[in-house]
Amino acid sequence: MPVTGMLAKGKNVVLDDVSMVFGDFTAVQKTDLEIRAGEFFSILGPSGCGKTTILRMISGFLEPTTGQVLIGGDDMAGIGPNRRPTALIFQNLALFPLMPVWENIAFGLEARGVSKRERRETAMRLVDLVALNGHEDKLPGDLSGGQRQRVAIARALAVEPAVLLLDEPLSALDLKLRQHMRAELKDIQRKTGVTFIYITHDQGEALTMSDRIAVINQGRVEQVDTTDILYDAPATPFVATFVGEQNVFRGRVSEVANGFAVLDGPDGRMRGRLNGSLHEGDDAMIFVRPERMQFLNGTDLDNVVSASVDRRDLEGAFVNLFLKRDDNEIMVHLTNSGAAGRDLTGEQRIGFAADDARVMPAGDLARD
Amino acid sequence: MGALIRSYGRSLTGLFIVLTVAWVIGMIVIPQLFMVERSLWVRQESTQISLEIDRLYNEISTLQFDAQQAADADKPAIENTISGIEDRIAELEVQEKAPQKVYTLDNYTRMSGLHLKIFVRTIVYAALVTVLALVVCYPIAFAVAKVATPQAAAFLMLGLIIPYAINELLRVYAWLMILDYQGVLNTALQWVGVTNLAAQQWIPFLESPAAVFVAMVYAYILFMVFPIYNTLETLDRNQLEAARDLGASTWRIHWRVAIPHAKPGIAVGCIMTFMLSAGSYSVPQIMTRGTSGDWFSQTIYRQFFESNNWNQGAAYAFTLLIVCIVFIFLMMTIFRVGVRDIAR
């Protein structure tokens, strides 16, 4: 690839004790975070959680109230966004509507005083990288959403950033295109080796693309882990419910032993893998993924509840069954193998293995 | 048209059209045609007819005296001659009163060297005022539209608009008071010891064209600020940040992103400021009070109301109008904006 050689190697980004306070509102609480060189890192959280503030501190549009931002080991204090080795892709892309595609892409080079011939050459190589050949002299307004997206990526890559910051750039695209662009972004990241920091509120997007994810809630980092760990072993009730779907049962701890805990609650006695520290008598929650729930046909499991089938949603590859048990809604995902769950009605016994359940101290859940 | 009828109904649409046509014809077309027609003829001087009439009146007086002295037999013949002369006078007087219109381009070609100089100077000065206003107003418009917080922007806007609640003449007089021989500025300079008002050692600000420039930029600042502000308001802040993030200097951000976006507004602002300052009468009249040369609008005024030469005045006014129209097209070409962009 001619392009890869042109790009600088990715650098790591370290947030050291960084916080951001606006007046009497703390947007980001004191945070330590290390994003490794060349990884695809997502910052995931609900809107207003402070993730965009973090992005703006890394890109240099905001100076943190406390702490340091280090990129490749260099303290970025006092260095403006135009002098940082980062490039930002905006949520609305912010292409320059009056410049043709190639000038958009080469704008960063123009700002660096590169000659027009060289700019055009580099732009054409990037046009090639993002597969926009033949569109280089059009105006952004004449392109489709996906093509504009690629222009934005190429424009950011043209300045050879060590860190590429992406602020929910896919949110304006329709589902099919979004899925396609996810793969493309991941591919470009691998080809270039640039550190990608991807901001999103879409957990599905974060899971599919990222190497690691930081989950943020109300200005605080709840968990930083690889996607698998994040999904299978969430650290807090918020992460458990924000990433993917969860069934939640509440109760009081009656026994803690060998990394497992037993809860007694309105849904009976339940056992699950212990996350964090709990003692007898503490309020706790037990979380089970809908796809780990099973209908019991004679077989027995560690945990069993009975509930009545309320409705069945067909989602394509999956079938979502919603069951009611008093006020609690229990969701069960079944793989669609034809008539999955179609004949299930009325009262059913469902259960899950203790290994598939996580017990942790009661806390705030993510709101839908 | 069809859309109008659907929205407002036949009768209301008809009324709109009648009013619009009446406005265009009554307020624009007819006065302009009247002007153009006026500018295309000159009144032929009829001094010979007047002399002839005077001579004939004298002759009548003589004949009347003759008639008193003459014998009765001769009287009818003399009175006959008198009435013949009276008929001739009546005929000549009709000729004298009817304007001897001679259609010619003389009004356009016969501009005196002095007037031509004033004309050219006015156009150059108006262009300079426009440039000056642009230089002053673009940063203001940008600050209000993009930099200031909403509250600060509201205050800035209020500060810009409040002076416009005051009559233009009073606003210009304010500058007169500041720049006058014994005005605010010279008084302030006296405190620092630069001027001495008692000894008539002052700086004659009003005698330099700069005084007119300052007052004009001030008088027409809103006409430049508002169109630019309106276009900059619609500029996505992310574009400025994107340019900054890509490494552009402040100058380049303006040159490549903000100014191209504001082009229609700049064009409209320049057109309005140029037209207003090229045609301004009150500002140069009040500011210079004859101490420095005329503005062309003052020359036109003199043609109409001092020389009483409406034909020449109409030609001058029409020439100015043509220059302004040429300026509009020039701006539209330079800024590559269409009528549609300007109307936006």
In short:
Chain A has 368 residues and is of the alpha+beta class.
Number of strands of chain B: 2
Fraction of residues in H or I helices of chain A: 10-25%
The poorly predicted ranges of chain B are: none
Helix content of chain B: over 70%
Instruction: Give the percentage of residues in beta strands of chain B.
Output: under 5%
Instruction: State the helix count of chain B.
Output: 16
What does the oligomeric state look like here? heterodimer
Keywords:
heterodimer, A: 368 residues, alpha+beta, Rossmann fold, OB fold (Dihydrolipoamide Acetyltransferase, E2P), 2 domains, 6-stranded mixed β-sheet, 5-stranded mixed barrel, 10 helices, 24% helix, 36% strand, disordered N terminus, B: 344 residues, mainly alpha, MetI-like fold, 3 domains, two-stranded antiparallel sheet, elongated
Can you describe this structure?
The complex is a heterodimer of chains A (368) and B (344). Chain A has 368 residues and is of the alpha+beta class. Chain A has two domains: 2-232, P-loop containing nucleotide triphosphate hydrolases (Rossmann fold, 3-Layer(aba) Sandwich), CATH 3.40.50.300; 237-361, Beta Barrel (OB fold (Dihydrolipoamide Acetyltransferase, E2P)), CATH 2.40.50. Chain A is 24% helix and 36% strand. Chain A is built from ten helices and 20 strands. Chain A has helices at residues 2-6, 51-59, 101-105, 107-111, 116-129, 145-158, 175-192, 203-209, 227-232, 237-242, and strands spanning 13-22, 25-35, 40-44, 66-71, 74-75, 86-89, 163-167, 195-200, 212-217, 220-226, 247-257, 260-265, 268-274, 283-288, 294-295, 303-314, 318-325, 328-335, 347-352, 357-361. In chain A, the strands form four sheets. In chain A, strands 6-7-8-3-9-10 form a six-stranded mixed beta sheet, with helices on both faces. Chain A has a five-stranded mixed β-barrel with strand order 11-12-13-20-14. Chain A has a five-stranded antiparallel beta sheet with strand order 15-19-16-17-18, with no helix packed on it. The longest helix of chain A is centred in the middle third of the chain and has 18 residues, at 175-192. Chain A is globular and about 75 Å long. Chain B is mostly helical and 344 residues long. Chain B has three domains: 2-39; 47-99; 106-343, MetI-like (MetI-like fold). In chain B, 77% of the residues lie in helices and 2% in strands. Chain B is built from 16 helices and two strands. Chain B has helices at 2-39, 47-69, 75-97, 106-109, 113-147, 150-161, 168-179, 184-192, 209-219, 221-233, 237-245, 250-278, 282-288, 296-305, 310-334, 339-343; strands spanning 41-43, 101-103. Chain B has a two-stranded antiparallel ribbon. In chain B, helix 7 (168-179) packs antiparallel against helix 9 (209-219), helix 10 packs antiparallel against helix 12 (250-278) and helix 14 packs antiparallel against helix 15. The longest helix of chain B is centred in the first third of the chain and has 38 residues, at 2-39. Chain B is elongated and about 115 Å long. The mean pLDDT of chain B is 87. The interface between A and B is medium-sized, with 26 and 17 residues.
